[in-house]
Design brief:
The chain is of the alpha/beta class. The chain has a domain of 94 residues: Ribosomal Protein L13p, Chain: A (Alpha-Beta Complex), CATH 3.90.1180.10. The protein is 28% helix and 17% strand. It has 5 helices and 6 strands. The strands form 2 sheets. Strands 5-2-1-6 form a 4-stranded parallel sheet. A hairpin with a 6-residue loop joins strand 3 and strand 4. Helix 1 packs across helix 4. It starts with 19 loop residues before the first strand and ends with a strand.
């Protein structure tokens, strides 16, 4: 008789390991890259995937400011934030946002593709974004993958 495998949580006799992956975002489309990253962060690419346990891997993304957009999204794509006060809604298009905070568009795209529960914060902590080609995670020996 076959039994269903359920992964154990981090501290309770964990019998699986996390891998480190390196992704070069230069010239990649924002949404397509974000969806692939969200799948790896959740652990859906592994046969031991369990929805209630964070079985995902770490991802280091370099050149995150060089992500490509199609069409006229550089001017039309808007990012909103609210200060909490009346009339405190701030809008910024993609061009201005990438000039101020180059890693934020990819982080927001991935965050919105993760499940809306408490595990999403744990999963998002495993995403490491860097503007240039250098990153401080060489000791973890990340495997380079192309998404």
């Amino acid at each position: 008789m076959q039994r269903t495998y359920v992964a154990k949580k981090e501290g309770a006799g964990k019998d699986w390991n996390r891998n480190w992956y390196l992704v070069n975002a230069d010239g990649k489309r924002l949404g397509r890259l974000a969806s692939e990253i969200a799948i790896i962060l959740q652990g859906k690419h592994k046969p031991i995937y369990t929805p209630s346990v964070d079985t995902g891997d770490y991802i280091v993304v370099i050149n995150s400011e060089k992500i490509a957009l199609t069409g006229n999204k550089w001017e039309q794509k808007l990012y909103q934030r609210h200060s909490g006060y009346i009339g405190g809604l701030k809008e910024m298009n993609y061009r201005r946002l990438i000039a101020r905070r180059p890693t934020l568009p990819l982080r927001e795209a991935v965050r919105r593709m993760l499940p809306k529960n408490n595990l999403s914060r744990q999963m998002l902590r495993k995403l490491k974004l860097y503007c240039g080609p250098e990153h401080p995670h060489a000791a973890q020996e990340p495997q380079e993958i192309s998404l």
